[in-house]
């Protein structure tokens, strides 16, 4: 990392990273602050901003209780960015604001962790890449928590060690029934109103794609369909795509199917079935099962289960942000990776004829 | 049914149907004769034919033991077809012989039950349709046993009754690892040598397609891929296709994925996952599960399992053949249905660029 902002806050001297949070909605309260709370010795919320003063005040009060001191709050993010006691910001806003606010933040000399999907469309995604290129002195990261989930790292290790032989087929499902009555994400108008390309399909899609790309390499989509069952939650609530993965070191290329569906009852969750020539792996949220036909009795399956609980990667994400700011290593969840995730899912939607 | 052959053997008078078996291989010994043995009061094997005298003799001896009388056997099927004491034949041969032998049989005035896939290619399939049209006095049936499996009939009833609401997505997998060392079908050279279009992919594919068409209506394939992992078992051992089903009375149209794979270890069998707006149905061989999210607790699944053991439909197939010959009703597994199954799977293979 470059010198400017960086040397002021040398992590190795156990100083806190002073973090400004822009956006005090669901992502801040439910996903980010719980991770930050666990890293109190390394990170402190030093300012909070939300367009609604009530939400800003509420999150600031939570920070006050955490650190036993008063946390300034703003309704205008440029005021937060102007503060000297903010080294870095978490941009946790409706996606269509990601580019504008990130640009202001880096121009103000702040490191940035910006929520996924990276940008509202590919054009703004490319502008994000340009910002990263133009500001090598700053750490810019996409808050793609799936990149830090233990379950996928363990799965990658098992696949590389040949646990299931050559990969024959990958089937990845992200299934749920998202109803406005019971799910608060289904009530956020910038999601249901498609203020970013693809709405929920992109919102969930970048998670799936990032996990798949980390495990299997880049994906080339050969066929795709999108459709809508419940118009209450947006212009599309399902995507079905066929792909070929490029493979990675120790992991063979393979064909696969990706299915994202927000209107299914009875099944739910993130589930991957990876079929191989010597066994099959099922990743069901935080559980990995390896199934093998017994060699002497090909009709009999032997099964091994392992459980890898994680916090969905949020803590690892902040640890990576901190270590990148310390100059230890480039972040795993770079803007480039976030752009490729977005490009893949939007490419599938466009191939399906559902592009905006 | 027409008068000619028919009145000679009026089933209502409890006479036996005198059945000639042409082809004394795996299908005859493992699949058909066990069903015929259970219908001894209605059906008798009256002659047997196989190119290899040894196999013909062996099956004739089995029939001898069954009925306590000597069963004539032949190595030339035209000799079997010339016999007066053969009312109907089961054509259980390598698929590329289906059309030629079926034509000879109907020209000899015999009812025909011919093994699936109906024909070696669509051109011969159309000739089969013509034979059916030209011989309304005879019953012609495809031995598609899946049409008679209890599990699919029960599933259809449950879907029609609204058990899972509107169908959102269908995922049908037929997965196994077929190794010549452990599976005798994998050693039949007319299958591995592709003496009929598609080899194993078609051989298994028509079963899947027939079950799907019975449940969901006709399938329109929008994208498909075929590939090969183990060249020992043929030019292709996997197919992946996306489709839209037309729907049936009480069953909504839906999108779906079909995956046939003969080179996967660890997972196996015929498994359908049918996702709906009010629940999901999993058909796992002879087990049907209905999963539902609880309405008050959307994160909790309620599950109901039912078990419908069957003999894979072989007995029902012969009962249908008998009742069609008695003139009770047209057979369920008609040549027309078998042709549509074949047309669907070969269409997918051709779309995938894997046509012969």
Automatic annotation (TrEMBL), chains A, B:
Coiled coil location: none
Gene Ontology cellular component terms for the protein in this record: cytoplasm
Residues annotated as domain GFO/IDH/MocA-like oxidoreductase: 152-281
One Pfam family hit: GFO_IDH_MocA
InterPro entries per UniProt: Gfo/Idh/MocA-like_OxRdtase_N (IPR000683), GFO_IDH_MocA-like_dom (IPR055170), NAD(P)-bd_dom_sf (IPR036291)
Top-level taxon of origin: Bacteria
Recorded GO MF terms: nucleotide binding; oxidoreductase activity
GO biological process: NADPH regeneration
Domain Gfo/Idh/MocA-like oxidoreductase N-terminal, chain residue ranges per copy: 18-141
Annotated protein name in UniProt: Oxidoreductase domain protein
Organism per entry: Salinispira pacifica
């Amino acid at each position: 990392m470059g010198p400017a902002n960086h040397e002021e806050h040398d992590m190795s001297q156990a100083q806190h990273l002073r973090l400004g949070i822009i956006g005090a909605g669901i992502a801040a309260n439910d996903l980010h602050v719980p991770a930050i709370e666990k890293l109190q010795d390394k990170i402190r919320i030093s300012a909070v901003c939300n367009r609604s003063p009530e939400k800003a005040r509420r999150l600031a009060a939570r920070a006050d209780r955490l650190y036993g001191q008063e946390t300034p709050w703003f309704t205008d993010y440029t005021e937060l960015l102007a503060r000297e006691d903010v080294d870095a910001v978490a941009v946790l806003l409706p996606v269509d604001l990601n580019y504008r606010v990130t640009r202001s933040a880096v121009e103000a000399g702040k490191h940035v962790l910006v929520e996924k999907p990276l940008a509202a469309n590919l054009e703004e995604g490319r502008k994000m890449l340009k910002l990263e290129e133009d500001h090598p002195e700053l750490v810019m990261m996409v808050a793609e928590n799936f990149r830090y989930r233990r379950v996928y790292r363990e799965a990658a290790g098992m696949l590389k060690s040949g646990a299931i032989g050559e990969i024959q087929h990958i089937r990845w499902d992200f299934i749920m029934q998202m109803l406005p009555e019971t799910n608060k994400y289904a009530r956020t108008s910038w999601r249901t109103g498609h203020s970013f390309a693809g709405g929920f399909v992109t919102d969930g899609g970048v998670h799936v794609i990032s996990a798949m790309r980390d495990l299997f390499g880049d994906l080339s989509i050969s066929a795709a369909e999108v459709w809508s069952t419940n118009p209450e939650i947006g212009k599309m609530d399902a995507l079905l795509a066929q792909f070929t993965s490029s493979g990675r070191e120790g992991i063979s290329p393979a064909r696969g199917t990706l299915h994202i569906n927000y209107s299914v009852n009875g099944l739910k969750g993130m589930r991957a079935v990876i079929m191989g020539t010597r066994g099959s792996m099922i990743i069901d949220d935080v559980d990995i099962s390896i199934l093998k036909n017994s060699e002497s009795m090909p009709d009999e399956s032997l099964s091994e289960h392992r459980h890898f609980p994680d916090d969905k990667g949020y803590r690892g994400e902040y640890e990576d942000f901190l270590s990148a700011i310390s100059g230890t290593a480039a972040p795993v969840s770079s803007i480039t990776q976030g752009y490729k995730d977005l490009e893949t899912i939007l490419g599938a939607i466009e191939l399906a004829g559902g592009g905006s």
